[in-house]
Amino acid sequence: MIMQAEIVAIGAQAIDAAEPLVILFNEQATPAIKAVALIQRFTTANQSERLTMTTQSIVVIDGQHYQVTYVGALVNENLNNIGHVALIFDSAPEEDQLQSGLYLTPKDASLQGKPDFKVGTLIQYQETM
């Protein structure tokens, strides 16, 4: 299954060039959360379908493919219920992994850091078996 989302708003404190992560929520986020998050609207989600991300999954951001290397314990529930996930463009540490995080590695080795997020950025969460 593939679920696609579009970034519809970016909080004033959502992107820090020094941090390898971004936090996403759906449009129901509180104003305090919206200030520090990217707000995503799912455009292909069927309410009866549930996405299950694994280390076999791919995340595509504006055509750039990222392999999921670690899935935090809270990712699937949060992503399906409140559109929340932290995308982390770094290797997962041995301990203290972010439990709401998807750790991502670019499929194209020339890509470094996190992508350039903007209003209109398209994200595909591709579940693979």
Automatic annotation (TrEMBL):
Organism whose genome encodes this protein: Latilactobacillus sakei (Lactobacillus sakei)
GO terms, biological process: phosphoenolpyruvate-dependent sugar phosphotransferase system
Name of the protein in its database record: PTS glucitol/sorbitol transporter subunit IIA
GO cellular component assignments: cytoplasm
MF GO annotations: kinase activity; protein-N(PI)-phosphohistidine-sugar phosphotransferase activity
Any Pfam family matching the protein: PTSIIA_gutA
